[in-house]
Amino acid sequence: MSVDDNTKREIDKIVERILRDSSIEPPIDIKELLAFLKLHRDFYSLDDPSLLKRFAHRIQIGTNKAINVIRDKVKLAALWLPEETRILVDESQPKPKQLWASFHDTVHTVLPWHKDFFLGDTAQTLEPEYQDSLEEEANYGASGLMFGGQRFSAEALDTIPCWSSICGLQSLHKKSYTTTFRRYIEHSHQLPLAGLISIPWWKSMPDPTQPQLKHFIFSRQFLLGFPNASAPTLLRLVRENTRPTKFGCAGEFTFSLTNIRGESIEFNGEAFTNQHELMTLFVPSEARRRTN
User: What's the CATH number of domain 5-146, 3.90.1180.10, 3.40.50.280, 1.10.3300.10, 1.10.10.2910?
Assistant: First the structure.
């Protein structure tokens, strides 16, 4: 499920207004942002039974249903209690995920149409599709707030589309490699860019039932120009052309994709690992040459 263009524009306006009114400059500090928005942040444990009672009371549903709602939101690692102007972040998550969850639930608080869900607005808001839509919108807004909105895009346009540029922006914005990578693909050059985030094939899977591929990210231009590009095919190319590495560059290669007009276009694949994930950037080779 993706966020429609009208909603993206509305979220972008809210993000830009917050950044302008707060005068917070990148790297965006979540503590400064929370202070400006008059939000409090606490950390919680799912083993705390008082959390379930507290959440169930706030949204006026039974404790059993509250457990289900919270369990469903564990992947987001945070909860928002609007009556308390407070967000609660799962303390068991790694620091980068705690940061992402903090920005994510901050966005829930600033999008006016999200409030009914968190106040327990019965049937519609508890529908899984409705929840998924809200979470995608919060993800979109979280990325904007984390990277200074249009500021990031302006900086990215001055770069060559490659991993060295992504690393430079990661250092500038002080966010994780994963979130910077995703932001770069979706909000930089007007080019058919794509990326895979996968578990490094040379590492043992923590859960053998989970797929190696975690995310397939692409720009609008890639979706329009290469609608038949297959994530499994790209993942196979990554496996065949990368080498075990603890950190940094894990391989670079070229290959061809057929565009919507039936033309064969050469792409450059460049893989980078942060130890936990393998991230591979796909850029048209001609675009790389033009920007050099």
Answer: 1.10.10.2910
Share of the chain above pLDDT 70, in %: 80
Residue boundaries of the structural domains of the chain: 5-146, 150-291
As its CATH architecture, domain 150-291 has 2-Layer Sandwich (3.30)
> How many CB atoms are closer than 10 A to CB 32?
13
Closest CA to 76 of 89, 86, 67: 89
- For 32-51, the pLDDT digits (tens) are 999 999 999 988 776 676 66
* pTM of the shown model: 0.88
Which are the contacts of 101, defined by CB distance < 8 A and separation ≥ 6? 76, 77, 78, 89, 90, 93
Q: Is the pLDDT of residue 263 over 90?
A: yes
